[in-house]
Backbone:
């Protein structure tokens, strides 16, 4: 098959399915089965998603670029690095959008620069923007542990921001809770329909549970270390393990979820996620890629759980 053609063909199918909500200027093309790129008028989609594995194919298609000369040399270098957290947020937001996880400006993501010179820097996507069109200079930059705001997209020259007034994500205090309480490297918030459905089907429960499903093995096995006072990863979950994810009640305003999220994180040391009833889910991991894997695995299990429940199959074997 070569260069992950199967995965990218599937992604292309999803993108075609969503073209009705995008600009008619956008054209999706496949570059020799290696990656999907988006051709459109700048500034949208100027930083393209890259493959997770190297390929030897020759790409002749030209990549649209944005004039970054309005920025300082430091920021130009930062935004041109495809592995920079700001660019990774853009890449993941597009993928999440195609999975129907962050449509209608919903959801959010933040990444802590754990591999950079200052691992206390946290990049956060803004509120109220179309996640599939987000650009790297639109991020808020916060420094832990005091949550000092170092930069906002409103500081960026208006030639790039078009004078739009950006608002910080309402998820910010919840993201900060995950970083401080679990030493996370990234935190993802989606409005996954499977997550919402699970909280509705089990509306009288304060947690979701499932066992004896192969996909559980993609999730970490965690344990509270009394000596260090921290939750530590001791391996991966096994097929026969029981996955438990706490469910908290929704509130009219996102930031008002902070206390209940913190309580759930404290009371469930083995979890890497918290479900919010009638709302969505928060998932975190030690790196951005671990958080991505955990989010995908959990969403798979939630979707499967809905189908199992409707078919009358117990989610926990033997129960």
Residues:
């Amino acid at each position: 098959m070569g260069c992950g053609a199967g995965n990218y063909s599937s992604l292309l199918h999803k993108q075609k399915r969503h073209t009705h909500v995008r600009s008619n200027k956008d054209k999706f093309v496949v570059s020799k089965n290696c990656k999907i790129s988006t051709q459109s008028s700048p500034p949208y989609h100027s930083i393209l998603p890259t493959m997770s594995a190297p390929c030897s194919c020759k790409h002749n298609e030209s990549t649209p670029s944005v004039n970054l000369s309005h920025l300082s040399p430091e920021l130009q270098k930062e935004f041109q690095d495809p592995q920079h957290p700001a660019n990774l947020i853009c890449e993941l937001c597009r993928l999440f959008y195609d999975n129907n996880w962050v449509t209608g400006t919903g959801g959010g993501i933040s990444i802590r620069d754990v591999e950079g010179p200052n691992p206390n820097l946290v990049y956060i996507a803004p509120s109220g923007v179309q996640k599939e069109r987000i650009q790297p200079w639109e991020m808020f930059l916060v420094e832990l542990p005091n949550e000092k705001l170092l930069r906002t997209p409103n500081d960026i020259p208006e030639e790039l921001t078009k004078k739009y007034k950006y608002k910080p994500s309402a998820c910010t205090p919840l993201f900060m809770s995950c970083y401080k309480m679990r030493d996370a490297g990234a935190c993802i918030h989606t409005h996954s329909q499977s997550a919402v459905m699970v909280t509705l089907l089990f509306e009288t429960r304060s947690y979701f549970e499932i066992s004896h499903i192969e996909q559980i093995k993609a999730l970490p096995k965690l344990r509270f270390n009394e000596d260090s006072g921290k939750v530590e990863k001791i391996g991966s979950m096994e097929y026969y393990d029981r996955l438990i994810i706490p469910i908290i009640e929704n509130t009219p305003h996102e930031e008002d979820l902070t206390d209940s999220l913190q309580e759930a994180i404290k009371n469930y040391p083995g979890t890497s996620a918290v479900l919010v009833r009638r709302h969505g889910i928060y998932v975190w991991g030690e790196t951005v890629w671990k958080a991505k894997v955990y989010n995908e695995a959990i969403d798979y299990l939630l979707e499967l759980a809905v189908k199992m429940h409707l078919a009358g199959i117990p989610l926990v074997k033997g129960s």
Remarks:
- The CA atoms of residues 9 and 33 lie 8 Å apart.
- The chain has one domain: 73-311.
- Residues 73-311 form a domain with the L-fuculose-1-phosphate Aldolase fold (CATH 3.40.225.10).
